[in-house]
Amino acid sequence: MRTYKPYNGASATLRPRRRSAARAPADRLSSDTLLNVEQMLINEALVDKVLQYEKTEAALRASEKKLNELLAHQVASREEERKRIVREIDGNLGQNLMALRTDISALHARTARAHPRLHDWVDKALDRIDGTISSVGQIVAHMRPFQIELGVVAAVEWELDRFERTSGLRCRLSRDAHFDGKALSDEQTLALYRALQECLSNVFRHALASRVDVSFAQLDNAVTMKVSDNGVGFNTGQARKSSSYGLLDVEERMTALGGQLSVISSRPHGTTVTLTIPLVQFSSRNH
């Protein structure tokens, strides 16, 4: 308490003002209310974010499912077109070539003595026809190999044997004792076979390898095929080259079937391509 003298000389006492006792709880109440409102707004924003995230995730899953279905449809359409072309080649071109060869063979036999020069010309024409027939057969076998009907193991064995003879590279196939490939559908068998063809083509063109190892394993309702070489390898982090578009096609096939493709490579330790296809997904489809 202070005493001061006003201008007229009289003294006065200044007493401190007392704060109202009822005002403090009111201030605390308004502050608590404000905090509660802010927390409610934050909670509502978090709930909105979670709901938005769930909707986005569901949309992504639906989009991925549609993309896989589209890829599967494209792969199936390509194989159907291959079948149609093979039928056309085998039914029309193949038969016409065989009929032409029969006629040329008859001419070849008749000109042996009377027309030696014509006979030589016909002999060369007959060789060209035989070469054409052989090429057509190779094209048909590449587009729709008959070994597919025998299962993935027989198809891979045939392909490795053919590749070994044409390339000179040593090939080895290994598999689990209980794996026979019978659990694979026709689509899956064909996808693995096409992947093997692409891998062998890349090895022959780029790897500078001397050996190729192919292995099969079945574990946890999935089949895994590995294709490894002892070549120079490559840098998987580099930009995609035109020569790697074949692997992109393989990856699309794997994605369409619910599978995965992985490539591990480093200079100069060779390359390993691993393909994994689930069995449960397609066994349920087939039934």
UniProtKB/TrEMBL annotation:
It comes from the Bacteria. One of its GO terms (cellular component) is membrane. Residues 192-281 form the Histidine kinase domain. Keywords: Kinase, Transferase, Two-component regulatory system. This is Histidine kinase domain-containing protein. Residues 1-26 are annotated as: Disordered. GO terms for molecular function: phosphorelay sensor kinase activity; protein dimerization activity. Transmembrane segments: none annotated. It comes from Massilia eurypsychrophila. Gene3D superfamilies: 1.20.5.1930, Histidine kinase-like ATPase, C-terminal domain (3.30.565.10).
